[in-house]
Amino acid sequence: MKTIGYAVIGWGFMGRTHAQSARNVPLYYKGLDFRPELRMVCSRRRESVEEAQAAFGFPETSLDWREVLAREDIDAVSICTPNDLHEEIAIAALRAGKHVYLDKPVAADYPSARRIALAAREAQGLHQVVFNDRFFPSTLRAKEICEAGLLGEITQFTCRYLHSGSVDPNRPAGWKQLAGGGVLNDLAVHALDLVTWMIGWPESVFCACNRLYDARPLPGGGQALGEDIAEDHAVMTLRLPSGAIGTVEASKIATGANDEMLLEIYGTKGAIRWNLMEPDWLWFYDNTLPDAVYGGMKGFTRIECVARYGAPGGSFLPSKNAIGWDRAHTHCMYSFLEKIAHGGTPEPSIFHGTKLQKLIDTAKNSAAAGAPMFFDASDPF
To answer: Does 206 lie in the same domain as 66?
Structure first.
């Protein structure tokens, strides 16, 4: 049995998610010849590491991430810090030979992400960016349909990721609402990942952004003002090299939305529809079926993907059971650990995440200029 010594750097919502995902892997995947062992947690706040230790049983804690990277018994690290802290930690971890599981986005901006990618290119350890929405059976099935050419030539597409958490003007602003955060880095990056993974990279982007309030309270008192506040809403028009046009929207001011991502891709032979709030199902329209009296078999088919992972997944919980957001995170983590144990290249990699960061920066430049921008997806790192 290969044991993978694991550490989590940064203990907020995502730190807890990564730790839970790692702990769940042996439970959900039977007969593994490897297992992760949670050995250390690191945060800047003592109360945070004490909470993590009490909740997850980490045997050791640290207030300095450098101590984590110096440990020979730590093979892999999750980096769950705010975006603008990713670069220093990720580069140091890669240079220390650790396997790096980096929460999205890669960094706060493209230049920072590119420096991480350059370090990843020289690293001996493996690396993966956490785009968990790829790892539902329903999105994996959608990818299969796209790769099989069942949609034909893409004619149009849309992906909308909607939250409502920033509607309240009195809610204290965290780092995601301040400069370096914003809805493009926080939500749009997930939508762009699904779109580019399934149908490829755009050649141009035209973006508009909105900030609902010019002042927001800070957790410790005072207010963030003006340009210190990031965008709450962004809408992009993307043009594929084929000429097909689609839209990507991300909002934290969509009143009534919880965690709603809606993906639609239309082609000459078929179409797919998917909703993150209903991840058990993928809708597929086969346009090659003949018309018939009373409709025949024409129409969208609801594919019951539920929790039907391939072996060694899919046995616990039973594959017919409803799936949840956390289960996709566990499969994302499993995919990373399996490559550590057996070799191979984890996906999505830091290189892919860096290209997404470049696309986001291009969208920001487009919004600032009020004009479409060319996007070069072939630019090497």
So the answer is: no
